[in-house]
Amino acid sequence: MQAIHFINIALLAGAAAVLIWAAITDIRSRRIPNPLSLTIMVLFGLFAVLQLFSGTDWQTALLWPLVSALLVFAVGIALFAASLMGGGDVKLMSAVALFAGPDFSLSFILYVTLAGGLVALMTLLHAKLKDADPKAAKVPYGVAITIGGLWVCFQRFSLL
Fold this sequence. Notes:
The protein is 83% helix and 0% strand. The protein is mainly alpha-helical. The mean pLDDT is 95. It has one domain. It is elongated, with a radius of gyration of 16 Å.
């Protein structure tokens, strides 16, 4: 049982590291590569399997996190269709929603939204200082998703 605990910690630390890398990549290129979102999904799959081995029922370990992620993905697709969010952002947010599950999804979205507003404001100020067109500035929303995702990782860690 103690080995499962340490593996869970390593999986959460891995997810946090991938999120930080996603934020750095998004700041540099305004893109979030698909392998980063896929890595978080794989880490969640391992996390869920370990929960099942620990005696958690399959609905709590797999079903409800999948439902949460699908809901986040559906809303994200609508935002993408309206050109309000990038495709990489939608995929990353959905992957993190797996870890958030129903217990933390609303708070995760709230923190991402608040952090996103701050990141957008900083992006606009940066564009203004560089005498660039603020309307053409692209917001690296992966930074906001990372902030919310790190909060989710910390919450999951505190439950172990």
